[in-house]
Amino acid sequence: MLPPSVLSHLNRASEVPLHLQVYEGLREAILEGTLKPALKLPSTRAMAGHLGVSRNTVLLAFEQLLLEGYLESRVGDGTYVTHTLPDTSLQKVEVKPISEGVQPRLSGRARKLLEVQVTQYLSQPEYRAFRSGMPALKDFPFEEWRKLHARHWKNPPVQLLSYGDPRGHFPLRQAISEYLNASRGVRCTPDQVLITSGSQQGLELAARLLLDEGDSLWMEDPGYLGARAAFQASGLNLCPIPIDQEGMQVQHGARHHPHARMVYVTPSHQYPLGITLSLTRRLELLKWARESGAWILEDDYNSEYRYEGRPLNALQGLDQDGRVIYVGTFSKVLLPSIRIGYLVLPEHLMDLFVHARSLVDRMPPGITQAVLAEFMENGGFERHVRKMRLLYADRQALFLKMAALHFPDWLPFQPSPAGMHLVSHLDSPFSDQALVEEARKVGVTVRALSPSYLQGARQGLLFGYTGFPEDESMLAAHDLGRVLRSL
User: Fold this and answer.
1) Strand runs labelled E in 110-257
2) Mean pLDDT of all residues belonging to the chain
3) How far apart are CA 98 and CA 127, in angstroms?
């Protein structure tokens, strides 16, 4: 008969069928070594009587174990545990901490990736006030989007279901080109637009294709952690360029890091400080790039949201030498989950980037591209942007009122003419990262400013105000204010 511990766990109240419970119990006993190789098992009739189940239950379990090779049947002699397990890698072993076991052999690139901080939100992916970079998800035009999706899925053309153009769906590239020409002052044709899986993929491609490990790159300081992560993972030497009221200090970079091969810049609305790169600095940067042969990576991440006057034209529109690569995304303006971004490339780089993009994930999803293309063509995109611009302006004003009412004086705010978040610089003795943890304890999400610096970190907090309705924001401000005042 079987050892007492085998199949002692049968649960007749479970939703798992009894024959699967018998199968799992016997399989586990074989893998653990409780049932030794070449051991003869009781007959199905005897085992059924012992377990108090039907013989068919045991037969079904035996059949599966025989099929998978855990048991073997000997004609006229009965059923035995196989003398060699079918997959010895399945045998249960003691799980040791990684420090006690065999260390995995990683590539140098993998080790760099493990050292890189991609975002402060990987460990807290929740959607709650005051997380920055979040659009108003509940105000997305779901009904219009649903109808477009339903129509495209009803009878989709074969080219949207097959392997598509790695450059992206042509109508979408055309719609993006027309939109950028009209609203951002970007000079491009559809043949210069490459669809990516969000802006992060575009940043990674540019770093990997245009620079070698050890090359220098100017990085705004403070700057965007996601871009920094892509550059660090590629083994680049990041050169921190300070920010003043006119944006990146180009002359500082030219003086201290003259041999850099690329510049990463957010000229329309510097991340995270919200400063606009002045025209003088833009011309200085383009002149330096032309003379040094460097590339400029222009991240125009949320330029649509300017609440005073017309959105400023892109740096790319001033470029006469094909040195600027323009990066855009729909994550901030529509939904992060759409995962569609784009690059506008000088024509001579297009084939290279298309080839590399094909090796990464072949192509972006066809139907989603087609839906977005029509959404832009029929005016839905611009209607949504106008609506959100008004909504976000109101939400910024509301946030400033709530901050004045609930937050202590050592957490000051100033209105911003653009963007989706506000920054408060701290002159208090508190650590911004410690305050982030205190906020988390009461269910509020804020971002620390200091990790955005490469050197000379300044303490501060980033508050996103665009993604959350009034009642949620008011409750979060009240709870956070109570904690901050107690400190």
Assistant:
1) 193-196, 216-221, 237-244, 247-248
2) 89
3) 33
The C-alpha atoms of residue 362 and residue 365 are separated, in whole angstroms, by 10
Tokens found for residue 65:
């174990």
Alpha helix stretches (DSSP H) within 301-379: 350-361, 366-377
- Quick: pLDDT tens for 404-446: 999 999 999 999 999 999 999 998 688 999 999 999 999 999 9
- Bridge-based pairing of strands 295-299 and 447-448 is unpaired
- Torsional sign, CA 222, 412, 478, 418: negative
User: Where is 181: in which H helix or E strand?
Assistant: helix 170-183
d(CA 106, CA 365): 31
CB neighbourhood size of 346 (10 A): 17
**Tens-place pLDDT, residues 201-228:** 999 999 999 999 999 999 999 999 999 9
Q: How is residue 126 written in tokens? A: 């929740």
CATH numbers and ranges of domains, the chain: 18-90 (1.10.10.10), 112-118+141-378 (3.40.640.10), 383-486 (3.90.1150.10)
Report the half-sphere exposure of 390 (CA within 13 A, side-chain side): 6
The rounded distance, in Å, linking the Cα atoms of 61 and 50 is: 15
Residue 474 corresponds to which tokens in the numbers above? Answer: 């008011």
Q: Please write the tens of the pLDDT for every residue from 336-375.
A: 989 999 999 999 999 999 999 998 888 888 899 999 999 9
Give the Cβ contact number of residue 104 at 10 Å: 7
Q: What global pTM score does this model have? A: 0.79
Calculate the alpha carbon distances from 225 to 48, 143, 166, 454, 462 in Å. Answer: 62, 34, 28, 10, 13
